[in-house]
Amino acid sequence: MESVQPEEESINTLATMLRAKYMTQRSGPEVVDLLNARRQMRGERLVDYAQALREIAERGEIGDDWQVSAFLKGMSSVTGATHVRGHRPKTLDEALKVAIPQVGDYGEGYGIRLEEAMTAWDAREGTSGHGPLAATKSPGGGAGQSAAIRGMW
Length: 153
Known about the structure:
The protein is mostly helical. The protein folds into 2 domains: 6-112, no CATH class; 113-153, no CATH class. Helix content is 56%, strand content 0%. It contains 8 helices and no strands. The protein has helices spanning 11-22, 28-37, 46-57, 64-74, 78-85, 92-103, 114-128, 147-152. The longest helix is centred in the last third of the chain and has 15 residues, at 114-128. The chain is elongated, with a radius of gyration of 20 Å. It comes from Phytophthora fragariae. Residues 125-153 are annotated as: Disordered. This is Retrotransposon gag domain-containing protein.
């Protein structure tokens, strides 16, 4: 077992040692792929989304620019990401400090509550054919349920 000098004993030292021993280290490109694949989920606060990106980035040596890029690319609101991008944040913390006052906790706009953010997310994802509402549109464009959805009830 590795020993540590008493003056170096801290929670950060312990965390570093545990990561080195137990976390799988991945190559830079693998971690970048994981970062780019991670998107803000429905109802997820920007703070929680950023923390998830930090945890992915810890798996390899990834610079701040990759984390900021993944954060902006994965934000649920393109408009919100554009507002934040205009400030040219250099770190994920800077991006968060800009994002929350500018676009709110969920990235949908300042003062938007969870219910409103989820409604906006559903509307956006449903019209792009990726979200939960996409399955409820009939091929003719009218509102109807797909056979898979009807079969569930």
